[in-house]
């Protein structure tokens, strides 16, 4: 025989209904189902105890691991967010990265210390006009115009060959330096005053120094293709060195800009010497000058 239906307290539903009903209230045929529904509502009432609430939260089907933090955890105990790959590399730099950053810091510090003519109020501000005159002596425009004039006035084949290759070297220097400046895009020092002579769009960049590359290129070219006395050869070398130093003193460039400029200008002469223009490999150029 099936057992009578019981409520959550273990007593029969009929007894529960009899004990909870008022004596004077009328009982209809569906009264038992009404009291049964009332007892079910009472059994589903929220529990006031905190342990009961925690148990229900853990038994809830929507509770999943990681969906929300536990009640006892604080925001400081939350797991830290994952770092990006480049951030993890910054936290663990390599020896090469540390060395490069140290050299860059030394370069900036030394360039600022040597910028004694960067402004009129600097320690060597009175020498600034002389340094700017030296700056014009290494500019590309005077060298290009001077080479063209000498080439026009020359009346010997050997002289025209040398001057043609000097003009080729100057044009190659302008092209390669502008290309490297556009690729590297290193800004000029912050203490520099943009009062340079005849600047172009790429001249706002600092690496490498065009004056240093031109000084090294022209000095090596002159020492190899012109017959000069020893005092004049020494003066050519001193001019190239002082011109590179003046770029740092004026605040135009950093030390590494000038150092790489000297190296690149020295290597550019090797390119010019390898591609030397002569009446044999470039006859159209010399025929043009011979007609004039």
UniProtKB/TrEMBL annotation:
Its EC number is 3.6.1.68. It is found in: Endoplasmic reticulum membrane; Nucleus inner membrane. It is an enzyme of class 3 (hydrolase). Residues 1-33, 58-82 are annotated as: Disordered. Keywords: Endoplasmic reticulum, Hydrolase, Lipid metabolism, Membrane, Nucleus, Transmembrane, Transmembrane helix. It is a multi-pass membrane protein. Belongs to the PA-phosphatase related phosphoesterase family. This is Polyisoprenoid diphosphate/phosphate phosphohydrolase PLPP6. The gene is PLPP6.
